[in-house]
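Morning!

This is the sequence you dropped in the shared folder:
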Amino acid sequence: MAKYYLGVDVGTFETKGVLIDEKFQVVAETGAKHGMENPKPNYFEQDAEEIWWKDFCIVSKGLIEKAGIRPEEIVAVGSDVLGCDCLPVDENCRPLRKAILYGIDARASEEIAFLNEHYGEERIRELFGHPLCSDDIAPKILWIKNNEPEVYAKTHKFLTGSSYIAAKLTGEYVIDQFLAKASFRPLYNDDAKIDEKECALFCRPDQMAEARFVHELAGHVTAKAAEETGLKEGTPVICGTGDSTSEAISVGITTPGKLMFQFGSSLFFYYCSDHLTYDHRIHGGDFTVPGTFSVSGGTNTAGTLTRWMRDTLYFDILEDQTKSGREPYQVMMERVADIPAGSNGLVILPYFAGERCPINDAQAKGMIFGLTLEHTRDHIYHAALEGIAYCIAQNIKVMEELNLPVENLIAVGGGTKNPVWMQIVADVIGRPVCIPKVSIGASYGEALMAALGVGDLKDFHELSSVIEPDRVILPNEENTKIYRKYCDIYDKLYTANKDLMHLL
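The structure's back. Tokens below.
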């Protein structure tokens, strides 16, 4: 009997699924689009039942049908969801409220301020391993405790997205040990054990999921889950993890010196290191791959900013799509292809939803700086692409200051489909950018780890060996020289306007 491995990635605006065969080649892909709610400033939510689980079921059945295989031929399943989410569920794994999303949701600012005062700077560093920010789940649990006591009282488990999908599939509550230590501190300690003493401020220890390695089995598909997903009852399911971690694994970020930038709705990066790093601008900790460490961080916008540009500035092209048949992002890319480096003196701070690394300021605001009557919407869009690239350059600069050598820079995610953007990134950072042959992303990483989970890949080193590169984008040296000046302006813009942003 043929063997296949299924991977599903639930992202901010789309769920993607992939089936790979015994040679780890893609045999089928499918997806389902969805939305994200923004009910108040700094509040971002999704319905876990109607989006996460419903999409998983649609994608799972769709892959089986598209590939024309029998459910029993799928020998392992892996899934990921947006990394740092907070979802309270009851004893039947029914969500008690909509999921509070990752770092883009900054509703827990008061709780973060309280915790900073409660613990003090040194204790914060000991417990969390980084300055508290909107990525952390513990303040979000505290927010529910403070603001929704009726939800808090009914909560059986506080889950993140991958834990929820694993629980729906198997009935078991588990979490990737790396995700637990990276996002749920201080509820888990350095050994990924539930810290009963530190839990006391936030929740009961029994309300937390059990930490396991990402490729370890969470359990097996239940009869109910089999009926809803089309999978065979008893199919092994790995623990799974956050989308960015799966994305990193999908492109071979398994050895020190490799750096991945994930161009999704937000931009997230993972650097694999051989030692632990602490710096207030980025996050350091253990990594999913045993024996390695990570340096990670992200922006709050990337694809969400280009989407805003499309909906706000290019609405006519969006409306014309049904007539022309042309994808709006393709049209937008073509329109900005010949705009010179620097967008004719325009710089955008992409802090349209606050910002994470390296400034970690939920109250940061977006800026379009340098506008003149000569500028068009195309200049603004081009400058937005450059703004994300300037942020990448900022974070690489932090790594250089910390003596973290970047040997390979790999780009992945939906943004890599835009060659103009990828060339801008290469030009701004002055380094080659590698794009892997299979750039499906996190779903592919989950499928590979599912194969690892059932022993069909020996270890992460063997997993990495099956990943093939596609193309390398080399920087234009003349553009790199121009961008040095603009990077300097970009760095100073936030510092010069921080107080005014907070006054708003």
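Headline: The longest strand covers residues 26-33.

More detail when I'm at my desk.
O.
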